[in-house]
Amino acid sequence: MKENQIGTIIIDAAVAVHRELGPGLLELVYEVALCKELNERDIKTDRQVPVPIEYKGVKFDEGFRVDIIVEKKVIVELKSVERVTGAHKKQVQTYLRLTGCKLGYLLNFGEALMKDGITRCVNGLEEKTLSAFASPRE
């Protein structure tokens, strides 16, 4: 399965979780619920994945933790805040660069509508061009 296909499933699952639970809970609650929702759709998830970094020739075993990695291809960073900031977006971009993943999502479950809380981030992912009349799910 390709990154964009996985991304579509992630967004559908996130909307389902947000509809069921609503905004304003702890990020951990959404993390557990989203993974359950994805696993029910036969999508593999890994939670709180430590990612090593190298700095000046020294490898640090745990540079950071990714909230969720889906199908070993797509990073999902979860927030439950009033508004995401540029720093949150840069965080996902850095995670993509350091892991070599090509697609990531910053999902803010703090928004009243989930569609307003979705930020898509890419790192060298080839995008297929959509015609003006094509559905974004194509």
Protein model, in words:
The protein has 138 residues and is an alpha+beta fold. It has a single domain (3-122), classed as Trna Endonuclease, Chain: A, domain 1 (3-Layer(aba) Sandwich). It has three helices and five strands; from the N terminus they run ααβββαββ. The chain has a five-stranded mixed β-sheet with strand order 1-2-3-4-5. Helix 3 links the parallel strand 3 and strand 4 (103-108). Helix 1 crosses helix 2 (27-40). The radius of gyration is 15 Å and the shape is globular. The model is unreliable at 129-138 (pLDDT under 50).
Characteristic terms for this protein:
138 residues, alpha+beta, Trna Endonuclease, Chain: A, domain 1, 5-stranded mixed β-sheet, 3 helices
Question: Which strands sit side by side, in order, in the main sheet?
Answer: 1-2-3-4-5
Helix/strand-derived category reads: alpha+beta
CATH level-1 class = Alpha Beta
Share in helix: 25-40%
